[in-house]
Amino acid sequence: MKAKIFAIGLIVLQLTVLAWGRADDVEYYAVFVDGTKVGHAIHSRVVAGERVTTTETVNMTLNRMGKTVLLKTKETCVETVKGEPLSFASEQDMGMVTMKTEGIVGKDGTVRTRTTGVGAVQESTMVWPKDAVMAEGLRLIELEKKLNEGTSYDVSVFSPGIMAAVYSRVKVGAKQDVDLLGRIVSLTKVETVMSMPGTGEIASTGYVDGQLRALKSIMPIAGMNVEMLACEKEFAMSNNQPAEIIDKMFLASPQPLEDVGSAKSITYYLKPTAQTTNLTIPSSDNQQVQKLEDGTVIVKVEPVSMPAGGTLPYKGTDANITEMMKPGRFVQSDDANIIALAKQAVGDAKDSAEAAKRIEEFVAKYVKNISFSVGYASAAEVAVSRRGDCTEFAVLCAAMCRAAGIPAKVTVGVAYVNDFEGKTGFGGHAWTEAYIGDKWVGLDSAFKAGGLGKFDAGHIALASGNGEPVNFFNMATTLGKFRIEKVTVKPGK
């Protein structure tokens, strides 16, 4: 059981937002997590004729339970000198194999994408988000708006890493003295609030000099403060001190919980922290959410019991459900290895309920090496390596369900454990939900593998989707912004 840093795409987006009119060929940044230097970032901008190529690179080193995790990502945006999008590329290495996605933006707004890595090459199309810009388009907007105190505007920024547009509200503040690694400089404060439909918000605070160079930014992500400082290349590339993130992904329980696995339901009272104004928790078949006037969010988790039967394969026409049947970048249900594993696991099962139970059990035994050194591997990678932790269990289980004809999605949130490496409470976790009959049913191969039981009322979902980084935006915006104030348990019969 272990959470991931799904938000590295947001860190790259933070670097893009830092553009602020700079025309430097290369800019280096040191990356800090809660004051500890964990990596570096590089921004480059090259103009060749009528094209502008902007590249943002972020490398980070983190610790999870004493295991080193290397996270590397590189995003490239190609635009016209007027800021019109032409193409983009994203390379992500989360501990196993580099996954690369390339996109070409047509004049009609149709985007053709191609993803390579482990497993089948995936090609698809999407529509360019309305009014969205990339790095150069954003730079031109920032040059036009300038640094006049009180100026505010909205902008939509497309991120190749999360394959979506993030809506941003920008507000220019006053000048103030800022500490840049011991050097005090007068800079203009710029606040950017980023959000996506149906999710929470992340506020990034940047500090910009008179030449419109962004020298510092701070962004809270998943309970951690990520800070970026412009600096000399030598310091940016110097040795890092990996930060331990397990504590950041753990929530205290107001009381010990007994027999969580047999509870019919558990109701949680989530109290937002002082700086949180909008705590967004999703409702689902497994949890109902109510928001009180004081901001408290009541979440009642009552797991759906596995129904008997269920058509195999799924033959419904609901677009939202059939979408969870398609192969994705991280859930490659069309991969030959995954198809073979799904057939092996399902065997002679005639209905989706029995097939899903068999897949859950199969994945629990198939992933042999429970490793905390993997950042975030796709299902195709896990099918080959047979290692990882909760997210690897979740993506493989979801991919095998889809390959067998069962709609499935990856869900992330927190789950209660009595003893995880000496800790008791709610840790960051990922699991699978499969559509059986007419309900989404929770499957937790990682819990089964670890002897922790099954999906139960101790699971609080914060986000779910296709296993894409964009699906976990709500987790990044929510984790660290609330505490569990009260818990009531309804025992099972």
Commentary on this structure:
Residues 1-7 have low confidence and may be disordered. The strands form 4 sheets. The protein has a 16-stranded mixed β-sheet that branches. The longest helix has 15 residues, at 352-366. Helix content is 18%, strand content 44%. It folds into 2 domains: 8-243, no CATH class; 260-491, Roll (C8orf32 fold). By secondary structure, the chain is of the alpha+beta class.
| Backbone structural class | alpha+beta
What's the shape?
A: globular
Biggest sheet: strands, sense, closure?
Answer: 16 strands, mixed
Q: What is the count of distinct domains?
A: 2
How would you describe this structure in keywords?
disordered N terminus; 10 helices; alpha+beta; C8orf32 fold; 27 strands; single chain; 2 domains; 493 residues; 5-stranded antiparallel beta sheet
Brief overview:
With 493 residues, the protein is α+β, with helices and mostly antiparallel strands. The protein is 18% helix and 44% strand. It is built from 10 helices and 27 strands.
